[in-house]
Design goal:
The chain has 232 residues and is α/β, with parallel strands linked by helices. The protein has one domain: Rossmann fold, CATH 3.40.50. Helix content is 41%, strand content 13%. It has 9 helices and 6 strands. The chain has a 6-stranded mixed beta sheet with strand order 3-2-4-1-5-6, covered by helices on one side. The two termini are 33 Å apart.
Length: 232
């Protein structure tokens, strides 16, 4: 096999959805056995998941809530001879066509806030959380995690990200892009989403943001918004 797609997952930007669909395509024998790989970080270390290494896979499980945690620490082949590599740890060094998806920066930050709050990773208010979260988080993530460069000033990170080989798309294009990949891979288009059953606590939404909240976010995260508008 040769790698066709290297799909970099930015947190809270629908990476779990694409990963679940590709894993299920292999499970349904639309893709050859051993053709998908997820590389990700959790609980302070790096992990890999291949369906071919998991005889207990259950397609009714949530991939990220159930399957990946259950499989951590089990024997793995370490085989990277795959068709689709996905996850936070897929960086610029991999072969294949490189894609990622970004979303409205405020919606991404709100989703990240809610996710960490409901996992008890913080107890902050939105304003306090936003005040300690690095600005231009998407640019920072791509620069440090995809390009593997040390953190630097926001403009330099933005310029590097927009001039690399990564094909940056927005969530508005996700289903169209996914359908194109399915056509290239000769697999069926799925509408499945990750079946997370995580109990939801108090959530905030963009509707809870005041006009000043939104405008301040755009000022503080100028390069993330510029990136989003560039590719929207």
């Amino acid at each position: 096999m040769s790698l066709k797609y290297a799909l970099h997952h930015i947190p809270k930007c629908a990476g779990s959805t694409i990963q679940m669909r590709m894993i299920q395509a292999e499970y349904n024998k639309e893709l050859p056995a051993g053709s998908t790989l997820i590389r990700y970080e959790a609980v302070g270390r790096e992990w890999e998941y291949r369906l071919a290494d998991d005889p207990d896979y259950n397609p009714d499980e949530s991939l990220h809530q159930d399957t990946l945690p259950r499989h951590r620490g089990k024997q793995q082949t370490g085989n990277h001879d795959v068709i689709i590599a996905m996850g936070h740890l897929i960086d610029h060094t991999w072969p294949g066509e490189h894609l990622t998806w970004i979303r409205n920066p405020l919606e991404r930050d709100i989703s990240h806030f809610n996710y960490d709050l409901n996992l008890a990773r913080h107890t902050k208010s939105w304003s306090n959380w936003n005040g300690v979260t690095p600005p231009n988080w998407i640019c920072m993530w791509l620069y440090t995690q995809y390009l593997k460069q040390p953190y630097t000033d926001d403009e330099q990170m933005f310029e590097a990200v927009t001039n690399c080989k990564l094909n940056i798309r927005t969530l508005e294009n996700l289903e169209k892009d996914y359908a194109g990949m399915c056509a290239n891979l000769n697999i069926n288009v799925s509408k499945a989403n990750d079946n997370s059953s995580m109990k939801k606590g108090k959530m905030i939404s963009i509707d809870d943001m005041s006009y000043d909240d939104i405008e301040n976010h755009k000022v503080e995260n100028y390069y993330d918004w510029k990136l989003y508008e560039l590719y929207k």
